[in-house]
Amino acid sequence: MSAPAHIDPRLLRAFVAVAEELHFTRAAARLYVAQQALSRDVRRLERELGVELFVRTTRQVTPTADGERLLPHARRVLAAQDDLLAAFGQARPLLVDLNSPGLATGRRVLHRARELAPDCELMARYESGLTGAAAELLAGRLDASFGRWAGLEPALRSGLEQQPVRYEPMAVVLPEEHPLADLPRVPVAALAGEEVYAGAGNPRTREWTDLARHLFEGHGIRLASPLPLAVGDEEFVRIMAKTRNPVLAVVDFPAMPGTVRRPLVDPVPLSPVSLVWRKGLVHPGLDALRRAAAELAGAEQWLRRPDDGWIPATDDGVMSVQR
């Protein structure tokens, strides 16, 4: 067996789980990852080591001789990593960006992660958008964030990793007196001729503005002109009252005085949400976040696309890959 210069501990953890469970489905459930992702990690480890680690049949999974030989070494490496994390990994809190107060996806994942890892301190931060958060992640001033991975520049993505979490249905926030406000759901085509605000001009939310451009294309919807950055609910409501523009949002966007929030349909546009973190980050709080995201995505069917769901073609490959 010829070992490479470096082996990702995640791959060893996947291998040990399968070797102990002798079942890919049970091992995936134990690690809170998709079975496809677990199988991919085991195959990657086999490629890196240049050996076959398991004999797989339709009825059982058994370690090969090389798998048996690797198992005690892998357990020692993981035990040493756990000891290291116990000594230093919890010395500082994990800083988790939730984009904006009131948005449900990140908040629910964070809440569940705190339950899974009660001894870790996971602190919420609010950076407004993933583009802004990405720079903070790369600089080490944030540890994790949520948002649309495909909307980041390649240079930013190269230093980050991601895990798909949710297809979040999108909505439009309308002034109460808007002609479309009486509809329970607003067809995308009904916004033709409107100027809809989607963060244009805000350098921290470029991924969201780009998503809006894809959605509006071909529907006769114009992107509203840039506005001063509004921080806080009061300022957001004040600026919206001056412009009277509809605002592109998600269905969990918090209620604002003088407005109504209506789901968009025909098609149902989806905001692809990933958990994003700095490449190489090792922290028990991140492990808890990833487990929480996978658990909620499975229980709530967050990664199940409705038949009439829409996302940009650029996001298709991203969201189909679960690490």
What does this 3D model show about the protein?
InterPro entries: LysR_HTH_N (IPR000847), LysR_subst-bd (IPR005119), WH-like_DNA-bd_sf (IPR036388), WH_DNA-bd_sf (IPR036390). Belongs to the LysR transcriptional regulatory family. Keywords: DNA-binding, Transcription, Transcription regulation. This is LysR family transcriptional regulator. The protein has 323 residues and is α/β, with parallel strands linked by helices. It starts with 8 loop residues before the first helix and ends with a helix. The radius of gyration is 22 Å and the shape is elongated. It folds into 3 domains: 81 residues, Winged helix-like DNA-binding domain superfamily/Winged helix DNA-binding domain (Arc Repressor Mutant, subunit A); 123 residues, Periplasmic binding protein-like II (D-Maltodextrin-Binding Protein, domain 2, 3-Layer(aba) Sandwich), CATH 3.40.190; 101 residues, Periplasmic binding protein-like II (D-Maltodextrin-Binding Protein, domain 2, 3-Layer(aba) Sandwich), CATH 3.40.190. Strands 5, 6, 7, 10, 11, 12 and 13 form a 7-stranded mixed sheet that branches. The chain has a two-stranded antiparallel ribbon with strand order 1-2.
